[in-house]
Fold this protein.
Amino acid sequence: MNKDPVTTEKLDDIWIVTLDRPEVRNAVDSATARALHAAFLAFEDDATAKVAVFHGAHGHFCAGWDLQFGAKLAASGDSGGLDLDFEADDLRALGPMGPSRLRLSKPVIAAVSGAAVAGGMELALWCDLRVMEEDAYFGVYCRRFGVPLIDGGTVRLPRLIGMGHAMDLILTGRKVEAAEALQMGLANRLVPSGRAREAAIALARQLAAFPQATMLADRESAYAQWDLPLGQALQQEWQRGKARIPDALDGATRFAAGQGRHGQF
């Protein structure tokens, strides 16, 4: 019996979504893409879930689109469900790698070990934060085989690290090791080998402990401001933030009573 390529685990209000296809370094075929998409939609729709950790089992995050699967499609003449046109305002659209077109209302943290390359790198870029092991690596490795970036790589990479760094990675397909990834802003945290999952869970617990409505409003404002003129960007920030002023006053009261002094969390 074939095991599930995607599993979910719930640790109170933290979800862990795990890719588990060790025979192909967690590369994604169409069935796996649909399973990932379904898992993150389930996370989004669970009112008790606050933060998700996206993890790859057996030492690798994701080696991208499954080229062995692609070769079988080429031999059979079957599109394999790769016709994935979508409407721009569809917040729940299925992407070639699964969740890459989802626009969730809650944060996802990537726990990156081993290879996070090609489409796997695009999945990591889809996440809000990336906790990366010191011997893990990124790279647009699909450059070698003519596989395009169609899961947000050409959009999220320039927005995250700037056009100069993005063009270097997109055009050359070169390997980006963890230290350089941290320096250019691809990674948010570096941890020892084998520790990304637990470090990402610890970070998720920290996010889940904050007042959620305010944190999520600020998160949404940061995403919504792209390409807006400054005045409109400031206005949409205010519209989201002003609803949270009662929360701020409650927080001020707690601070005055002695909570969180000296930068304590």
The mean pLDDT is 93. The longest helix spans residues 30-45. Residues 22 and 58 are 6 Å apart (CA to CA).
